[in-house]
Prior knowledge:
Elements: H1 2-30, H2 32-40, H3 42-51, H4 53-76, H5 81-84
Helix pairs in contact: 1-2, 1-3, 1-4, 2-3, 3-4
Amino acid sequence: MATIGFILTGLGSLAWFIGYIWLVVLAFQKSALWGIGSFCVPIVGWVYAFQNWEQGKKPFLIEIVGVVLSLVGGALTGGGAAARNQ
């Protein structure tokens, strides 16, 4: 089960990273301030996505799916509990 957890965590992290970079690029295309804000404070990217929903919908949803996959993967690995019990 831990192997599946590690795979899900890796895929989730990759999805989150792709969605995050995509959203930052879109924010920079809108303006430098949106781009810098999105890069430095990720929640600004989410605000940008909500304000420009048609453009920011896909990268935002990819980020959310990535976070969920990472959390599920972390739960399946036991959060390191198996390593502590040995």
